[in-house]
Structure formats: C-alpha cells, structure tokens
Fold:
Amino acid sequence: MNCPSCGAPMRLDSGAESLTCEYCGNIVFPEKNDDGVRVLGQPSNELCPTCGIGLVDASFSSAHLRYCTRCRGMLIDMDIFADLVQTLRRGNEGGGVIPQPPDRSELQRRLTCPHCRQAMETHFYAGPGNVILSDCERCSLNWLDHGKLMRIAHAPDALREEAEV
Ligand SMILES: [Zn+2]
Ligand SMILES: [Zn+2]
Ligand SMILES: [Zn+2]
Structure:
C-alpha cells in the first residue's frame, strides 16, 4: 500500500495492525472487513489457488497473512498457524459448535501453491473442526478456504467433546 498523503510505500508495523509511511510518518489503520481481516496491501503476483486473482497482504487477529478479496480464502504461514489457532480458540472458550462433516470431494482438489506454483497437498487438518485444507511443505504455507479458520476456532476441543458424550 502507498501512503495516502505522500504516495511513498508504507511499511507494515509489528503487530500487523497498521502501516507507517517512512517518508512522512503517516500511520494508517486499515478497517476490518466482515471477516475481521484488515487488508494492508495491493494484489500481489501470488495468485489465489481457487480463483486466480492476486492475493493481498492482510492481517487477522494480529497475524500477518495473505488473503483473497474474492473468495476470502487465507494463505497462512505454517510457523504462525498453530499460534493463530490457539489465540482464536482461547477467544472462543465455552462456545464449542459441533462441526459439520467435511465435504470429502474436496480431497480430490488440486491446487497450485501461490508462492512456488507447484501442486499443493490436500488433506484433513489434524486438529479440531473437520476441516480439509491444502498446504505446500516447500513454502511452509497453509491455504484455508473462507470460514475454515473459524470452524477450527469454534470446534469443541477433544476434552470437551469427550465430556459431553
Ligand atoms: Zn507519507
Ligand atoms: Zn480466491
Ligand atoms: Zn509452495
């Protein structure tokens, strides 16, 4: 994103919530959209694996990720994924929603990694939520379709599930 006051490129601040212009010092806090995502940049040359438009830099719950403004899917670094899931799940304590069964046809899906342009692996997410996701080991990236991250966040954890049976 370029500075709205002077047009110079802006730098993403730590915390991934705001951008600072190194030239004039202007600080911009992009608005959150309906998904709670702040779009921080312009479409890049990394293309959405499901709809092919350029992904944008974005932040969600203080995590920096890449986001598709059309299908609202998220490309998340594996290094931060576990922390992000934990943060989201902590915010949803007590609100366990029994997840829908996954759509197994998604396992047949062949997606291309936006970063290295090679095939991604599609498989069940090992954690809660009955979610099928795609990842690229080479680039350490997870692709989550719209809504899947929140499904993971809202799913009951294993302990709670056992307690309720
Ligand atoms: Zn500026
Ligand atoms: Zn998309
Ligand atoms: Zn890759």
In short: The radius of gyration is 17 Å. The CA atoms of residues 135 and 142 lie 4 Å apart. The longest strand covers residues 56-60.
